[in-house]
Queue: 2 jobs
Job 1
Amino acid sequence: MGAIRISAALFGGTFDPFHNGHLRMAIEVRETLGLPRIVLLPSHHPPHKPGHPVSEAQHRFAMASAAVSGFSGFEVSDVEIRREGPSYSLTTVQEFRRAEPGVDWVFVMGADSFGEISTWHRYEELLAACDFLLLPRTGTPLSPAPPARLHIEKEEPHCYSWTGESYRLPGGRRLYCPALPALDISSSSIREKVRSRKCIRGLVPSEVEEYIAEHGLYLGSGEEGRQ
Ligand code: ATP
């Protein structure tokens, strides 16, 4: 039996804003895999969204923190915000591994993000640095389509307590694709709704809805409306 070794998850994102898709997925991952800890990582300068203005890190950090306050097992880390320059996931994973060498980390990301992994900084090293878990994203197949040079092997038979698929990455790390329900919510659709003065209740935690209103986020025209 391939016993699961993961003891904590890293879930990074721009979180502009943190929404119920992020929150619900983090809860599903935590419960499905029985993880005691999920660390949310608001990024400083997301290297994958060049040219897109992003709200100030202090706002994005505050919204993620408000959303999970009161949920045991959730933490929000400011390591990427404090670091100068772009938020490279490899640097983050290396920092967490150094700081807590006894923890087996799994890096959580949407299936859409994994499809672009070959554009990430030193992605082959990143894929060898920890295990990965893909979240379903509407419009993206959950089964990973690896970049051309990446050979991944499906594991058979499936031997975990949850349903879904798992793969071996080059270097021996695992890629988990649990069958979780997809939630069609995105930060960009929320920004667009706020800009159009539409209601975002149900799409973001109430704390985030209040924060957006209190700070007047996303009201400006186009993506320049971010603060
Ligand atoms: P934007 O619409 O601005 O591109 P986003 O909604 O994708 O933003 P991010 O902060 O960029 O939010 O996402 C962080 C991570 O969470 C990414 O790996 C993304 O794929 C994943 N993610 C975001 N929304 C969902 C969702 N509804 N379901 C599953 N994964 C999600």
Job 2
Amino acid sequence: MDQRSFRKLLSRNIGLPLGLGLLGAVAFVAVINYLLSAMQWVEHTDRVIGNANETVKLSIDMETGMRGFLITGDERFLDPYEVAKPQIFSSLQSLRGMVEDNPQQVDRIDRLVALQQAWNDFGKEMITQRRNGGDYRQAVGNGRGKRITDEIRKEFDDLVGTEQQLRMARNETVSRVTVTAISAFVLFIVGLSGLLAYLGRRDLLALSSSYDDNLKAQQRSAERLEHQAWLRNGQTQLAEQVLGQLTLPMLGDNILRFFASYLGSVVGALYVRDGHGRLVRVASYGLDAEQQAREQVLASHDGLLAQAVREGRLLRLEDLPEDYYRLSSGLGSGLPRSALLMPASDDGQINGVIELGFLRPLQVRDDELMERVAGNLGMSIESARYRQRLQEVLAETQQLNEELQVQQEELKTANEELEEQSRVLKESQAHLETQQAELEQTNEQLSERTDALDRKNDELSQAQEELQARADDLQRSSKYKSEFLANMSHELRTPLNSSLILAKLLAENGEGNLSGEQVKFAESIYSAGNDLLNLINDILDIAKVEAGKLEVRPETTHLERLVEGLRGMFLPLAEHKGLSFEVKIEGQVPATLFTDRQRLEQILKNLLSNAVKFTDHGQVSLAISYQAGTGIVFAVRDSGIGIAADQQQAIFGAFHQVDGSSNRRYGGTGLGLSISRDLAHLLGGQISVDSSPGQGSVFSLILPERFEAQAEEVEALSLRPTVDTLPPAPQAAALPAPKLPAPAFADDRERAPFGNRCILVIEDEPNFARILFDLAHELGYSCLVAQGADEGFALAAQFIPDAILLDMRLPDHSGLTVL
Ligand code: ADP
């Protein structure tokens, strides 16, 4: 009910009865007034009647007095007459004033006055007559006086009668009016009161029901407020719990403890998403030891937790199964009856799940609180994670900082060095300036020479063209040579073989018709032929390799068998020289390998025969072992003369022997190792040597377990003659491969072949070389650094750089010489 209708109601229920009372009072006053006025009129009438009676009495007194005098003639009897005579008219006049409002009565009084006047005249006459002794008796006897008196009496009676009638009529009117008015008023009051009572009751009922409604609404709002306060309180308390610099486990503990105390959860766990999207348990509450120890990480599709994450909403679980979490306390353990799974999210991203178990049924307000705090929790989890990351990054930064400081110190020292250098530079600049003047002079001379040089250059380029043409010819002829050698060797072997057989036959002297000397000649021919054949075979092999015509025929080769063959061949030779000979195969070596057996045998025979040849006492051995990732290693070891370090590469060159006398002393052609190395390459392997003079040598052949022909390898082999058969530079071949000194610092030589262009720096001052090296790198070149002229040559020959930076003053040779 609003204020206005309440005021209306109030004014109706209070104002109306009040007005009614007032009206009653007014009516009452009016009735009283009316009655009073009516009473006045009645009183007036009574007074009129009284006055009339008084006047009548006066008239009678006058008559009585006159009669007494008339009878007695005694003057004393005239006293009443005399007394009444002056009074009667005034009495009549006052009566007339009283009935003024009634003309009929006024007329009557006027008549009475006239009658009284007439009687007075009559009385006076009579009295006078008496006194004078006149005949009063006759006058009295003819009845004139009596008539007047009767008339006066009659008039008075009429007057009083009229007044009495008037009084009666008034009384009647008053009683009628009073009864009617009072009845009407009572009826009105009763009706109005009834109406008021009805309306009042209705309004009060309405008021009471509205009050009741209000009361209920108030109660509901109070409950709502209380509920809101509970939720807000919960949010505030939780917010206090997640405040501060907390780690994830501390945050989880605080959250779970809060829910335990605020919602009465008896068991709980907090899972947080890690970088792989898995849920990792970071905190728990009230779990028993077994659960605690159980898996802490859940994959992104496992179980109800993942379901809650996927749906992104609260999950309520009632009537939990037996194998749900067991909670445990100091007093015992039990099962929760219900559970809530609430995903926590930040910025729309779900980053964790809270799982709570209860011993009571779930209430709506539990859900509401959980849903309200989900965002806040998500934010707290996120910030804890950020903090963790921040700390890690901070630690890294600190470490970097320390490293930076170290580097700064290094920089400082470098700076000092630089300052020193710049001082030196300044000095040299002054020096340079003087030199520049000199240079300008020489420059002029030089320009003259340049012209001369230009001319020579033209000549040179002509000569170069000729050279190129010759080189092409040479390449062609070298190819022909290889082919010729291959063919010729092949052609030579047939007649040589027949002459060998013939020489052998001769030497055996089957018919006994040759002298001892002739047999010796034949043996010499045989032995020389044999050497020749070997030589031809070697040349044939080399020519074939160079011409790329050597075919590899891989097959499954039994090592044991191969070794037995070798043992059979070399044991007698060794024993003949008084050497011990041993062959051993190590345990992990496979029984077979897939390769060209004949070529392998050829290599091993060559190595073994060298070993026996160059060993005078001691032993020769062949050891076969297996190296995972590399292949099978055949190591031929001897205790012979050994090879000097500077010879160890050269002996693999064609026709190379350690010293000139060796041919005379040991025989041989100097081709064996060269062929062996080529063959080893062909089979996908390599040969290396480790030896020291006087101690013996170890030649190691390493072969892959399984031969695989490689297209480019075959191609490379077939291309080789064009390179290798350029006119042999005998000295170059005889020279040892230049031994490079260790570089001043790690340049790019290990990175060859280079993907980009390469610059060779020949500079002995290491710091300056370093600067040039860095500059070259900055400009995107690879860079090699040589510290001297010789090393520079070697590097240039080996890597063929795109450009060379050359220092003019080098420790070994002058720059001009190098140029
Ligand atoms: P050849 O044996 O026909 O002279 P090689 O190419 O087989 O030719 O050997 C080249 C040179 O290497 C030999 O002349 C010898 O000086 C040296 N040499 C090879 N093997 C040995 C060894 N086991 N001990 C010492 N020197 C060796």
